[in-house]
Amino acid sequence: MVVKQMQRAAEIGKASRKELLRCAEERIFFLGPDDLSSRLASKNMQYGLGKMLYASHNEVFCVFGPDASITRNTSRWESGFGYGCVIKWFDEGIAFPELRPNGCGMALARLEEQPTEEEIIEGLSRLEEDPPELDGLEVRPDLGEGNHFFEIYRAEYIHREVEKTLSTHYYAILHCSSPERKADIYGKVIEGDWIDTPLGRVSVLLDREARDYLRLWEDYKSFCKRRRELILSKVLPDGEVILDKTHQGIFGPAEMRLGCYSAVDGNVKGDIFPLTLRSDLPVYLMKGTRNLSQGVMKKLGFLERARGLDLLEELENLNILPHGSGYEIMAPYYRVNTLHRHGRLFFYLRRESGNGGGNASIVITSPRELPFRYRGAEVMERTLEYELGYPVAKLTPIQTIKV
To answer: What is the C-alpha to C-alpha distance for residues 386 and 153, in angstroms, rounded to an integer?
Structure first.
């Protein structure tokens, strides 16, 4: 395996743009839906992954989960990355800060009774008027930013294997990261060494800088978790935080997860993970299973490709579990082509012939301004179909706060 990887690394170091894109495409494995959002994400990832392959001279691969999607973070998108995926590389002496991990996660609190809207708003108002401090920084809620939210639920179903942990009728989830310190992580992009590749430049941190970056990330991740728990304690002082799971960040010296959990390895036995779809749909509390199975890989058509790349064992221990539903783009385009010019990537989106509007097309560099909505139950269905995990509780949303 090592010899093959060394041979491939030498080949990649001499690759043309076309060859590099082919190598990257071969190393992208897909569990997502066949829609415009996931097609764009996969196309964009060919460029990001290709740059990583060229810069590292080592193996890199990506697995998109059932919620495979665009990212609405423009800088991350323009660096060549999608969302709802695991990215792994085989050199712990290099880091890729353009992946921009933001420490986003969800904290789940157990409540004895349902709070009123007035109580929640009063608690959030107190935070605004007299913000608490964490590590010397003022903490202000950011629940109106992006897909961050604060939500109250009533339990509709709790499996007996988790009755001790989930022992009440009402719960709250806080979904957010930490704007107070995000610049610490994002700022490492401009501090990195820039490597020119056939697909454009990529920022890297090497050796000691990569290790320092990992230590910075661990401190930042801790801050994000403590921040979520602090906000919950101030807004719902009678609540008890029972879990706090990160779904966007660094999960090892050479592993990034963007919008998904590591649902088995590295976690306490019996861990529970929130899967939130849309505010009009139930939240499922999940347990992960070891994945991906060879049966699922064969069904999806990439078992032999994984074996040929010597990535079979990696994929069998991926343990991916989605945290949400991902973005569905509400635009009537299906075909996606790309053109790379002057350091920028252009996406040509075209309708299928006969799909109204003839051959109408649109050209974009970022999908951020395209109309979108969150996907629904199909993400849960794919999670079950691909044996990634199973639900142990079903929670019905009764109050959503976006302020």
So the answer is: 27
In angstroms, the CA 277 to CA 86 distance is 19
Contact assessment for residue 399 and residue 118, using Cβ atoms and an 8 Å cutoff:
no
User: Which residues are bridge partners to 224 per DSSP?
Assistant: none
- Say yes or no to pLDDT of 6 above 50: no
Percent of the chain with pLDDT over 90: 82
Residue 255, burial from CB neighbour count under 10 angstroms (0-12, 13-18, 19+)? middle
Alpha carbons within 13 angstroms on the beta-carbon side of residue 201 total 9
In the predicted model, is pLDDT for residue 358 greater than 80?
Answer: no
Between CA 283 and CA 274 the distance in angstroms is: 7
Average pLDDT over residues 312-340: 95
Specify which of 6-15, 23-32, 135-144 reaches the highest per-range mean pLDDT.
23-32
CA atoms of 117 and 236, how far apart (whole Å) = 12
Q: Are strands 320-322 and 327-329 parallel, antiparallel or unpaired?
A: unpaired
- Residue the block writes with tokens 């890199």: 60
User: Any idea which residue has 């179903």 for tokens?
Assistant: 157
| Higher-scoring residue by pLDDT: 351, 393 | 393
Q: Which stretches does DSSP call E strand in 180-239?
A: 193-197, 200-206
